[in-house]
Design goal:
The chain is an alpha+beta fold. The chain has 2 domains: about 130 residues, Sandwich (Jelly Rolls), CATH 2.60.120.10; about 80 residues, Winged helix-like DNA-binding domain superfamily/Winged helix DNA-binding domain (Arc Repressor Mutant, subunit A, Orthogonal Bundle), CATH 1.10.10.10. Helices cover about 40% and strands about 25% of the residues. It is built from 8 helices and 12 strands. The protein has a 4-stranded antiparallel sheet. The protein has a 4-stranded antiparallel sheet with strand order 2-7-4-5. Helix 5 packs antiparallel against helix 8.
Amino acid sequence: MHRPWPAKSVIASLKSDQCRALLASGHPRDFAAEEVLVNQGETTRHVFVLIDGVTKVTCSSRNGRRVLLAIRSRGDLIGELASLDGSPRIATVTATGPVSAVVIAHRDFEAFLARNPEVSQAVSASIAGKFRSTTQRVVDYGAHDAPVRLARVLYRLYQDYGLRKGDRVELGIPITQPELASIIGASEAAVQKALAGLRQGGIVSTGYRTNAITSFAALAKAADIPPDEGEGDDFPPKP
């Protein structure tokens, strides 16, 4: 727990005493790879604080199609929306590998937020950010073709989960081509073709369970992201 929390996570936005108090209000629990933390449609209201590991958030439509909505990792909250509004879970959350979390009962989470308005604001901001991200994806679907949508999704993934290794940035989470296809609303064949184009351009390299990029600026250009909105080649920072 002495590692710094990822800068963009909700837990990183809390003061150290707030973080300790929040984690102390629940109990630790470990999950194995492919173990489900919550199921879509269930009416539970407890909240998870992810301490380590990566989870995938998926939703199944009425016709049985499964769509990858998001990825959550260390420092993120899971289940806070259902805890706050009492609605059924809108998605299933599954561990992609070993996951450690703190589970907080709804009543304890609600009481903690009531005692700590700053934390309540941070949680609300996190929920708003998640919906903003979803809205942006909807805009991307209508405004861009599959290669640009893929580049934009990869850009965001590398922003949030990239690990600099020498002159390249590796994606620190496992994600498959079918999952990328579900994120951008395209066929797996379209993703394969778009990835091939990025590889030919020297922007992306792929291998068995590994993905890396060599330039954020080049990926931003492929993603049709204006220069003033991009993070530049030094994101994430060199160690």
